[in-house]
Amino acid sequence: MEIAKTDTIIKTEGMEALISRLGYVDAERFIALLSKEPFDYTEWRQTGLEQDLDVVTLSQKAEAFSKNL
To answer: How far apart are CA 45 and CA 43, in angstroms?
Structure first.
């Protein structure tokens, strides 16, 4: 049985995933971009992304999207 992760663990693991894929600067930039806009993650996840993407594919799609802004 898996024990539920705390918010701190989830935030730490999320930042580690972003940093490992994007590097420190672009991971921070990604966080800042999300913070600047009114953003409903739940709606975005349900309607804005294909379901069941692995983290590498998700990161690639996010990078391609940001280049088109």
So the answer is: 5
